[in-house]
Fold this sequence. Notes:
Elements: H1 2-30, H2 36-60, H3 65-76, H4 80-98
Helix pairs in contact: 1-2, 1-4, 2-3, 3-4
Amino acid sequence: MIAVLRLVSFLEGVSFLLLLGIAMPLKYFFHQPVLVPYAGMFHGAMFVGFLVLLLVACQVKRWSVKVFVIGLVASLLPFMPFWFERYIYRLELERIDDD
C-alpha cells in the first residue's frame, strides 16, 4: 500500500510540473492549448487518487490527521509531492525501526 501511495505521489508531482511547466506555457505564450486537456486530466486523476490513497493509508497505518494535512498541502504546491513521498518513506522506516 505505501509503495503505491509513494508512486502516485511521485506521479502527481510530475503531472503537476508538466501541467504548470509545459502545458500552460504552451497554451498562454504560444497559443497551443493541445496538451492542457491531457495534462490536466492526468493530473486530476493523480490528485484524486493520491488523496484517496492517502486517506486509506492514514487509516490503515494509524497515521495522525497531521500526516493527512501535510499530504494535502503538499499536493497543492509544486515540488512538494516529491518531498512528501520521501516523508512517508521515512515514516515507514521509523515504524520498522520501532518494531
